[in-house]
Design goal:
single chain; about 475 residues; eight-stranded parallel sheet
Length: about 475
């Protein structure tokens, strides 16, 4: 066990789903610092208080300029360097869904990616970048996104452009990335743009070198899988080096990368991912790795459901940061994390069942665990496996308000008990969530994960009441 091979450990905060209130960030930034983080990659999306012609981009709960300043002060206070992340190419749904900007889509019917041919596209993203920079001081880096630029080359203007000899989607991609990066570098000479590397991975050394992109940006190589091939990463790094990229970043994941509607975080999956990245770092040439960003996705994209809430992923984040800080995972790392988070026992290979932590938001993890494990199964058990319900109170009976009087005693008490139990738990969770999140996020999570089962139960109880009434 040694020390970390990374100078910077960034915790990624994905604000496009269940963005935390500033009061919660005030509680977890000190924890990030204690666990070994020294930076935050802030993906603002629609939570930034855009103004003027960009005002439509703001979510209803967007942070105010004062709150942004407060977040930045908190970060400074806890020695966390801030790197903003603003998508400028792909993943532009939060911009292109608005009618004011829909004419800038690459493919008219899809809000994913901007049309790289339009000058107005560059003007739009430059304006977004400038508004974000204006609220920050002393930025050394600015992440301009550029991952997963789906449907690039499939727009009408692109199809036309691609008919000319020598033109390829690779060149189109590089030209636009360079234009965005050049804007940042020329307006802010001390700031370095970072881009995700996936659009460049498959390009030849010759194409990358000829483009001159390496002089403008630093690449962030991402892979969130637990068993990726270390050797192929080493080969990729070597290729990027030959193309003159002076500095590279890695991106791992501590949550939000194992299922689009995942509720609970499996720590073991994410720990293995970090162990692989440590091996890659060991085999990398000295001085080329700038740092690692531990991503914590909150949605797969702007339109998808929420995945694990931030407090749910904190134990995983703690394990991963500590493993990086110590150059590996050990029994001591496990004990330290238990101490930091006030957990009686940390379960790595299975979902945690005993949740009694003292870290900020631990009660949310506790409720979410109960709901994920027991809510639906307990309701299914009553409504689908209880012979009195399936045999004497089937949909046929319910519709006709028919019930054998003796059968009421066999399952009504269970149904009422279950309904009372889960109604109370869900109210307590809602209260806990509204301390940390805005109402919209709490409502969305409840509607997705709690309401369907509670509603089934409530409807059964209501039908039973009606059938009892019909008996009298």
């Amino acid at each position: 066990m040694g020390s970390s091979p990374f100078e910077l450990h960034l915790v990624h905060l994905d604000l496009k789903g269940a963005p935390p209130k500033v009061s919660y960030l005030a509680e977890i930034f000190p924890l990030f610092h204690v666990l070994g983080a020294n930076g935050v990659l802030l993906e603002y999306e629609d939570m930034f208080p855009y103004i003027e012609e960009l005002k439509p981009l703001r979510a209803n709960d967007a942070y105010s300029p004062t709150e942004i300043k407060e977040i930045l002060n908190l970060a400074k206070l806890h020695q966390l360097e801030v790197i903003p992340l603003v998508q400028t190419f792909g993943h532009m749904e939060f911009v292109l869904k608005h009618k004011e900007f829909s004419h800038l889509r690459e493919v008219a019917s899809f809000p994913n990616s901007v049309n790289p041919h339009k000058e107005e596209s560059l003007k739009l993203v430059s304006s977004m970048i400038e508004q974000v920079i204006a609220l920050h001081d002393d930025l050394r880096w600015f992440h301009i996104g550029c991952d997963e630029v789906y449907y690039l080359g499939e727009g009408e203007e692109s199809k036309e452009w691609l008919q000319q000899e020598e033109n390829t989607t690779e060149k189109l991609c590089l030209a636009y990335m360079k234009a965005v990066a050049s804007h940042v570098v020329s307006a802010h000479p001390t700031m370095k743009p970072i881009v995700w590397d996936d659009m460049l991975r498959g390009m030849s050394e010759e194409t990358l070198r000829a483009s001159g992109i390496a002089q403008l940006v630093e690449l962030m190589i991402w892979d969130y899988t637990p068993d990726f091939d270390v050797n192929s990463k080493a080969i990729l790094i070597e290729k990027y080096q030959k193309c003159n990229f002076s500095k590279l970043w890695f991106a791992s994941a501590f949550k939000g990368a194992t299922g689009v509607n995942q509720c609970l975080t499996l720590i073991g999956h994410h720990l293995k991912n970090h162990q692989q990245w440590l091996k890659v770092a060991e085999s990398s040439p000295a001085g080329i790795i700038q740092g690692i960003a531990l991503t914590g996705w909150q949605r797969y994209d702007h339109f998808s459901v929420l995945c694990e809430l931030l407090p749910v992923g904190i134990p995983s984040l703690a394990v991963c940061l500590q493993a990086l800080k110590n150059g590996g995972y050990s029994e001591k790392v496990k004990e330290d994390v238990e101490t930091f988070l006030g957990l009686s026992s940390l379960e790595i290979e299975t979902f945690m069942s005993d949740i009694s932590g003292t870290f900020p938001g631990s009660e949310i993890l506790s409720f979410v665990t109960q709901i994920a494990f027991y809510l639906k199964p307990s309701v299914d058990e009553l409504l689908e496996n209880n012979r009195y319900v399936t045999g004497w109170f089937s949909p046929y009976h319910r519709k006709r308000k028919k019930i054998h009087p003796i059968m009421i005693h066999h399952f009504q008490p269970d149904a009422l008990r279950l309904l009372a139990k889960w109604t109370t738990a869900s109210q307590e969770l809602q209260t806990a969530m509204e301390k940390i999140f805005y109402t919209a996020a709490a409502e969305e999570w409840m509607e997705e994960n709690v309401q369907p089962s509670l509603q089934r139960l409530q409807e059964t109880v209501d039908d039973l009441d009606r059938a009892i009434e019909a008996l009298s």
